[in-house]
Amino acid sequence: xxxxxxxxxxxxxxxxxxxxxGVEVIGTDYNKELVETLKAGKLTFEEKGLDELFDAAVKxxxxxxxxxxxxxxxxxxxxxxxxxxxxxxxxxxxxxxxKDVLKVCPKGATIIIESTISPGTxxxxxxxxxxxxxxEPGKDVHLVHAPERIIPGNMVFELLHNNRTxxxxxxxxxEAVKKIYSSFCGGEIVVTDIKTAEMTxxxxxxxxxxxxxxxxxxxxxxxxxxxxxxxxxxxxNMHPRVNIxxxxxxxxxxxxxxxxxxxxxxxxxxxKVIDESMKTNDGMPDFVLNRIYQIMxxxxxxxxxxxxxxxxxxxxxxxxxxxxxxxxxxxxxxHHLASPLKTYDPFVKKDVVENQFHDLDAxxxxxxxxxxxxxxxxxxxxxxxxxDKIILDCHNIIDLPGVYHI
Length: 406
Ligand code: SAJ
What we know:
Blueprint: E1 2-5, H1 11-20, E2 25-28, H2 32-39, H3 50-59, E3 63-65, E4 73-76, H4 92-104, E5 109-113, H5 121-132, E6 141-145, H6 155-161, E7 164-168, H7 171-182, E8 189-192, H8 194-224, H9 229-236, H10 259-266, H11 272-282, H12 284-298, E9 307-310, H13 325-336, E10 342-344, E11 356-357, H14 360-365, E12 369-372, H15 377-381, E13 390-393, E14 404-405
Parallel strand pairs: 1-2, 1-4, 2-3, 4-5, 5-6, 7-8, 9-10, 9-12, 10-11, 12-13, 13-14
Antiparallel strand pairs: 6-7
Helix pairs in contact: 1-3, 4-5, 8-10, 8-11, 10-11, 12-13
The structure holds ligand SAJ.
Ligand SAJ is lined by residues 116, 148-152, 204-205, 208, 212, 245-246, 248, 251-253, 255-256, 314-315.
């Protein structure tokens, strides 16, 4: 039996996937409300294909509880926040979860950590936590790092098809864990050592962050000299060895906007390109704010309350707002004066900011300048509603004359 600890964005889909593929699974979360919701048959967030997966897992007998279970295999998928000042990963939740597992697990159990951690975290923090409990890592309990790689918006598909990495001290333990993941994962599963697995996960997200920063820098250069960055990237990407990502209003989510900082924090002076890239991405919401002011001036608009930000989530077609560029922009604007900017997002049903709308038509009626911060399908499909508006399209998806870009 596998006890999945932490039933959030990663733990829940993973638990459901395993259960629906014949693995006996119990999901544990310390949040009583969340556990009660799941027990009542309701999901805690929206994600394509998750409903069907939930039904299948429930039929297969998955159970949810706040209690840690006595079993031989644990998967830990709790959050790993980072310290905004030191830029280092804060493994406090992972350490706490491991300690709680140690209270109940039998000798020889395997603890698989899926949460993203920086290279060396298991050596520095987790092995010590085990010895502190009078146990010997590698003998009394086996540690494995199997970082998650799935992308919000396409989690179910990616769980089934992505390649995976498993880091373990002993090959046989890595192979045993590989067998569990093989129950559902059709991708290649590489078994390596723990530190390599930790590093690969952070490097994958760093690669993407640096590439996006490059695209954002190109957007700034092109804006400065009146060139079309999208056309330039499109042509460059026709070269067989060039693949530039897209500029945007900033980078959000709990991965690409966070993980690369671990390398900056842990390797000061060495991770210079990464440091600059993260600063470039973090500066994009302010860049958009300046574009808003420029466009208002050019259009003779003076009333900020007639400006509307379309999209509050960190990216398209998800309801996740973590580190969202729109929230960053609003925070920055509020810095100067109370933010009168209007907002709307079809995926955000609760009121999270002031001046938030819950209906597209009402939102559009209330503004003259629409800033497309997130490329939800809804706005792509309702372009005709923007015909009479001044538009700042941060994603180059609106096909109307006179549209402004970043
Ligand atoms: N973005 C751009 N330009 C682009 C692509 C993305 O500005 O060309 C922005 C998005 O709008 C968003 C942010 O970057 O704000 C991140 O979005 P994303 O879709 O690139 O990635 P995440 O954070 O949703 O998921 C990433 C994935 N990592 C990689 O693709 C290397 C996913 O596979 C990981 O599992 C996930 O991080 C994670 O948990 O680490």
